[in-house]
Every structure is written in structure tokens, then in C-alpha cells.
Structure to design on (186 residues):
């Protein structure tokens, strides 16, 4: 069972598509959000959850005070789950704006004019390092000053190739999962 861990929508159960997603575990989300909240990086922020799957990362941010959340996943089943999960969270956090986009992450980033303070990138393990590098490069102009980007991968994956405009500052391992964080200059 996947659920929202804490905040206004805490304990809300999230629908998980039958296949094609790998939701971030409760333990990893709790550790990640404890770190982000301690640094004041969630409350009143605009958040993007790319390769959203269930939307668990973006919706956790909504539950914990983000004011705007965008969930992006190209798989129709995942986008449908994100829409359903977004409605469940918005019932508990009515002031948050949550948008769902059923399209590839790179297409969304290249086509949007929105900017973000916090971005989660948790692609399927078969997404190549080149694809992630291309996405990060396209994302830089869409980030605010001091924005944080979190890339979640298998611990067997190499560190992402950070483009100019993103400076790595943290790597945390949680069992088979590793989360890298990078920040834009303030």
C-alpha cells in the first residue's frame, strides 16, 4: 500500500497502477521529506514530479505545504492514477493547485513556461543516463534561484551528469535506492 506519510493529507491511500510504476517507498519519502522540510524547501513552493507514477512525491509535497504541484507521466495508466490521487489529496488540502500532464517529461519541460522551486525526477530504471542528462539540461531554465532537483535512481546507476546551472550537493542511499540532490545558484 502506498500512502501519503505526513501533513494535511497524511494517511491518504494512493492508487497504484497495475504495472509500469515503482512507487518510492514510505521510508525513502519520509527521510527525503524530513531533510527537505528541515531546510524549508517544501512549504509555499512550486513542485514538479516528473515520471510521477502514482504522484506520491509531488502529492507528499502538497500535503506538507507546497502551493503548486505538477505531476507528469507519459503512461496513461499512471496519469489516470495521478488524477485520482490528486483529487483525494485536494479534498484534504483544498488550497493547493495540482495539475496532471499525460506526456513525456522532456516534452513537458520543453513546452512549459512555468518555473519550479523543487523538482523530483524518479524515472523507471530503464530510462538511460543520456535521457536524464537531456532532461536536466532542458530543466535548468525552468528553475528558480535556489531551486532543488532530486534525482532518484538505483544504487547501481551512476551519478547524473549535472548541466551548468545545477550544482550537486547531496547523495543519500536508502537500500537499493539513491537520491542525488542538486541546487541552482541563489
Amino acid at each position: 500500500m502506498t500512502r501519503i506519510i505526513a501533513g494535511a493529507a497524511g494517511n491518504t491511500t494512493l492508487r497504484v497502477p497495475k504495472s509500469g510504476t515503482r512507487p518510492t517507498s514510505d521510508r525513502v519519502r519520509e527521510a527525503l521529506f524530513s531533510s527537505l522540510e528541515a531546510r524549508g524547501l517544501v512549504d509555499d513552493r512550486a513542485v514538479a514530479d516528473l515520471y510521477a507514477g502514482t504522484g506520491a512525491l509531488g502529492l507528499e509535497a502538497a500535503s506538507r505545504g507546497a502551493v503548486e504541484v505538477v505531476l507528469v507521466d507519459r503512461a496513461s495508466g499512471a496519469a489516470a492514477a495521478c488524477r485520482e490521487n490528486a483529487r483525494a489529496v485536494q479534498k484534504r488540502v483544498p488550497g493547493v493547485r495540482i495539475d496532471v500532464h499525460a506526456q513525456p517529461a522532456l516534452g513537458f519541460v520543453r513546452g512549459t513556461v512555468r518555473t519550479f522551486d523543487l523538482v523530483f525526477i524518479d524515472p523507471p530504471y530503464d530510462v538511460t543516463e543520456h535521457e536524464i542528462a537531456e532532461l536536466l539540461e532542458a530543466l535548468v531554465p525552468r528553475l528558480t534561484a535556489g531551486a532543488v532537483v532530486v534525482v532518484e535512481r538505483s544504487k547501481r546507476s551512476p551519478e547524473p551528469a549535472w548541466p551548468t546551472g545545477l550544482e550537486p550537493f547531496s547523495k543519500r542511499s536508502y537500500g537499493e535506492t539513491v537520491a542525488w540532490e542538486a541546487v541552482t545558484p541563489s
